[in-house]
Amino acid sequence: MHGLMFLLLLLVVFFYFVHVVELSGRRFMFLGLMSFFRHYVLCHFVTSSILFFKF
Predict the structure, then answer these.
(1) Which keywords has UniProt assigned to this entry (predicted)?
(2) Is a pLDDT exceeding 80 seen at residue 8?
(3) Structurally, how many domains does the chain consist of?
């Protein structure tokens, strides 16, 4: 299960960097950061749900 969490985190970080590179603007960095936090919270919620239902 720890491997799955690490994989999710790696995927989120990858998408975050892709998002930042696509925008590549200083005034869009805040939006990118908010998007990153939304993805992080979503993945954390999904992982917690999986752990909760598995055990």
Answers:
(1) Membrane, Transmembrane, Transmembrane helix
(2) yes
(3) 1
